[in-house]
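Supplementary Text 2. Reproducibility record for the structural model of the 616-residue chain.

All settings were left at their defaults, and a single model was retained for analysis rather than an ensemble. We include the record here because the model underlies the residue-level annotations in Supplementary Table 4.
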Amino acid sequence: MRLALVGNPSVGKSLIFNQLTGLGVEVSNYPGTTVELQRGNTCFQREMIELVDLPGIYSLDGDSDEESLVRRFLDLKDTDVIIAVVNVTRLERNLYLLLQVAEYGLPMVVVLNMADEAVKQGFEIDPGPLRDLLGVEVILTAASQGKSIDRIIPAALAATRPSKVEVPYDHHVEAAVRSLGKMFPTDRKESIRALQGFGDNPEMLEAARTIADEIESRHRMTAAQIIAANRHNFAHQIADLTITEEASLPRTDLDSILTRVFPGIPILIGILVGMLLLVFIVGSFLEEVIVGIFNVFAIQPFLALGLPPLAEALGTSILLALQAGLGIAFPYVFLFYIIISVLEDSGYMTRAAFLADSAMHRVGMHGGAVIPLTLAFGCNVPAIMSIRLLHSRRERIIASFLVTMVPCSARTVIIAGIVAGFVGIGAAFSVYAIVFALILITGLVLSRVAPGERFGMIMEMVPLRQPDPRLVMKKAWSRLSEFLFIAMPLLLAGSVVLGLLGFFGIMAIFEQMVEPYTMALLGLPGYSATALIFGILRKEMAFETLAILAGTADLGMVLSSLQLYIFAVVTVLFVPCLATITVLLREVGSRITLAITLYTVALGLLIGALMYRILA
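Retained model, structure tokens:
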């Protein structure tokens, strides 16, 4: 049996989904779309039940990817029962979508969530009128506290009939529905959708367009506007019957502080800087511990086995990939997801996006993009994984380009270890200045050339609340597992390929071939190209490989200050690391990943060549 959760964004739908399914969650694209669905299973009275968490939407009237997916899902009747999750503190607006879903004639259960928030706001809730009007089971829940969640599955299994509610549309709309019903073999829902311009029957759409034009000439409003107004009015009537507002005690309005330019923006900067420092400092410490443990208990004992050279090369490559992957996953990805889950569950994320919206619009994105761009300073991998917070593919493409250019902690190791160590602190800061200028220019250009429509940002200000540590850890682990099971296999395969290339001497041949070009273009010896390639596995490996190939850790003895500076700039701008590439493939597809890779390679070489020509 399959159950589908439908609702507005930020109504607690995904929280209910996670509570019902546990950790056994599969993330996949719905066939024919690029929109992800979460699927999970639960067992009730020895029956296996599949749950699908549909994307949060406000209505079925738009043409966004998410709205199109939900419409298609409901059209195909790809579920046995609909679980409509509603934020009871904003019942009227949530009922608009509920009334649309009810018209599809599928068995339904309504979950009035956030009852605890409603009590705090002084609302008294009576589910009786809503139950009578809809003709389906209505459950009052508080998902953040786990209250009444256990009633949802039994109610869904017992649901056998669709909602009996019919929105009382304007008499001209009702007449149009009857006319279309007589002209074509269609039901009420399809007739209403045809008047709004949706449907697959060209003849019916043409007839509906003619009738809709006549309605518009009479009302001075389009048929779609009249239908929407009728639904809102009916939702208002139902909400008035369901909720009674009582007198509530005055309380501090934190939004008046958090959403103003001052002190909202200083608070936002403080939170983002604090998050960055926490991820960087704690992540760096944990990474050092994990890498050290791997060296002592895995890599050194393996090398001591004295295996045949090929087996040793393959084994070392695999161990280095595991070391690199786990050295990113737990110190940076997991820590990031704990912090991001705290910000999400506390409700602060929407306030941050609201404050950053104006600045982000200049580079073609909305306020939500401030989170991935900030997190990229710690590690590009979780930052790329977080671009799914952005709503349109256009924004995700722009964000993926910019995030991969942000100097992560591994690139900071190169800037600090090579430039600050051998050239100077001022030169190190100038590398950051160059990178930030290129990020800004890239964002401005992409905002004008990236395909796709620009959408205004409509984001619900969810109530501020105290996060549940258990749910935070559960959500963070669920997201980390996606990285471990998707990115790690690709990271292992890439490492083995690089290891084999090195073992069979292809790297040495490569160095001899490219040295004339690296010297002419960048003024760098051939082995620097090998170091750049090893930097694809992990960025700081470019620094380590350069020291090994140069024969000394004192790079200032074998390379000039200009060569070290150019090498650092090219490395920072060069192709993202393998872990980032694998996550990019997952998030934006192979074409965009290839475009980002080629762009960063070309940009790194171009800037390096310009520096060599100007400064040599």
